[in-house]
Design goal:
Elements (H helix, E strand, L loop, with lengths): L2 E8 L23 H10 L5 E4 L3 H12 L6 E4 L16 H7 L2 H6 L14 H18 L4 E6 L1 H12 L3 H4 L8 E8 L11 E9 L3
Parallel strand pairs: 1-4, 2-3, 2-4
Antiparallel strand pairs: 1-5, 5-6
Helix pairs in contact: 5-6
Length: 209
Amino acid sequence: MTATRWHLLRHAPADVEKGTVYGRTDVPALPQDPALIERIAARLPAESLLITTPLRRTTETAEMLEAAGLAPRNRIVEAAFAEQDFGAWEGTTHDALGQEGSADYAAFWDNPARNRPPGGESFADLAARASAAFATLTETHPARDIVLIGHGGSIRAIIATILGITPENALAMEIAPLSLSLADHTRGGEAAGALSPWRVRGLNIRAGV
């Protein structure tokens, strides 16, 4: 049985003030050390399906990797893997929101996996859309190498889907910028007696090390 191999890479650090809420804000990626990008590109498979999101920090990370030698067979944009929408809080810092004493902001932290910012979406909302797209792409691209340059939120959501864990537990996972997580899906795994068709081969690997 041939596996569909997912390579989940979080985008390069974003060019924003520390502590800024920037889920759907279309901020650029910071330029990176070319040697680091070359090491990351060397760990990713050639002839892959390369997926980015509509947000430029993923596209710019892909462009860095392609300039360093990554050669995907084809490339698509998948909006379902975009970062969580934080609505009215986008572009504001957590410090500023806390100092304002907003009841909405205080209440959000009672259950950050399920609560929605004003005009935004919850992490559970993100997980629902990302997991649906993930299942479809796994089904329609069997036995392929798939590289997703995604966001911390969308990669947590995908790993939660694979492991069958709740959105609350998924938020406990660290997904660092330019870290790599690896998962393989084997068709017929359940029929062969396996507990799951999925195998997680790595999580939050510092891909340039």
